[in-house]
Amino acid sequence: MDRKTEPNWRERALFLFSPKRAQEAYAQRLKREREPESGTDRRARMAASGYGAHAASTTLNSMLGYNAGGGSAEDDIDLHGAVLRARARDLFDAGGLARSGPMTLKTNVVGWGIQPKPKIDGEALGLSEKAQDEWERNTLREFRIWAENPMCDAERQHNFYGLQQLAFLSELVSGDVFVLFGMKKNARTPYTTTIRLIEADRVSTPDSSSGESESREADGGGRIVDGVEIDAEGAVIRYHFTSRHPLLENATDSVEWTPIDAFGGDTGYPNVLHIMTAERPEQRRGVPFVAAQIEQIKQLDRYLSSELAANVVSAMLTAFVVTDDDDTTGLEDAVNEEDKITDDDMQLELAPGAIYSLPKGKKIQEINPLRNNSAFANFVETMETVIGASMGIPKEVLVKKYESNYTAARGALLDFWREVRVRRTAFVESFCQPIYEQWLSEAIATGRIDAPGFFDDPAVRQAWCGCMWMGASMGHVDPLKEANAATVRIANNMTTQEQEASEYNGNDWLSNVRQRRKELSALKETKTDGKTKKPKETQKEERSK
């Protein structure tokens, strides 16, 4: 008899009190162990273990009625894009938290513009440090000719840095935005490369209803998911753009669709840039930044509006006089004509300090001018915290209200800045760098920049395309403490002066050094009373030599 068939300790204990029951329990156990488990028994066992006994339980009272439906990324996200965009834009236009969140991120992620600093792989290209430095400085000068001119915009409205702000904000509010490359000559710049921003609504499935997100099968075994066509393996192969905005009112022409391949057939370079933040694998369209908070923000707005209206009525301190006749003196003249909201005679408008005479048979049920909602502030603050946490933005940053001590404030800023870094990196990779490489290709092809082997070897091309992107830095709670900390980090080789300069205010350290050299030279030449005054910095430098 093996150990599995021996009576266990429970059965042996039961034998002392009831040999018959012990024998029955022993026999039933052996039967269960020898017979295969049925599907029903397995489901019952699973329901009582692991997540089945908690978050996935269908028997717990707290989970009864919680029947969450699951679906693919296409069903759960892509096909709800049109509704989410409309609601997100409405909340953004109305102001409040739905506007503060995207605008705060735009200010910190993009700021005045994410600046490039060419950083090529000189070792791989066989360049000396001097030659590398010269090439990088010349390339930056050339890029500024193109980037700081609104001619780089196909619509001739924004320069490259203005397009950064518009593209990033559009992605946050609408969920995604598209970039098309073009070429157009102009006398103000030697470059013809242009970029055009396309709003999310203009990418949709051909023949779909106006302003609706739809999907269908495509030729070759693929699918068109809300305007994004994928092949049988799920790779994006083209986008379908409408001839105009589908929600344009008073349009006389019908909407037509134009397919544009995602990549050029000969070069392999992207024809279209799709700027979005994915939440799930196989997701084809983006989600507005406030999508998860739409319900909470809308309900909070309604609550704030009702409280505002109630306090406005309370502030009126209006008195009503009930008469025994039909005299309504004061009803018509209590509110100035220019202040009236409606001309409806059935509605009574209030004015500060007004006294109304009500007609016979009319009474005011309740007037409470001394309104005091003691829970208002705490409730609103709690909602701001919850909504801010869902956005990844600390409440202090979201509502621009800083009341914490140094440690708490810096902790909040550091937490927020990690979110900023992640989003900036993603935006650089999807928008800034591809556009820079597109421009650089034209600059090299036209001979304005020399880069041997750029079009011959992908590895060489990558070495020439190296570029750092620097944006606005994190705010400083205590500049002196943080400057001292930076000094310690540099002294211990934990960071570099170039990195610290970039993170402090987005400046280029080498440019700072050159500028300081000029300033020290100018100070050295400054004369007072016929004598040259040397600053302490210059004296120290000379002594060290």
Task: Give a written overview of the molecule.
Among the domains are: 3-63, no CATH class; 74-100 and 150-293, no CATH class. It has 18 helices and 14 strands. It has helices spanning 9-17, 19-34, 39-47, 73-76, 81-94, 97-109, 122-125, 129-147, 160-174, 294-316, 376-391, 395-398, 406-445, 458-464, 479-491, 497-505, 509-525, 536-544; strands at 115-118, 176-183, 193-199, 215-217, 223-225, 228-230, 236-242, 257-261, 272-276, 319-322, 355-358, 467-470, 527-528, 531-532. The strands form five sheets. A five-stranded antiparallel β-sheet has the order 4-5-6-7-8, with no helix packed on it. It has a three-stranded antiparallel β-sheet with strand order 3-2-9. Strands 1-12 form a two-stranded antiparallel ribbon. Strand 4 (215-217) and strand 5 form a beta hairpin. The mean pLDDT is 84.
Question: What attributes does this structure have?
Answer:
single chain; 545 residues; alpha+beta; five-stranded antiparallel β-sheet; three-stranded antiparallel β-sheet; 44% helix
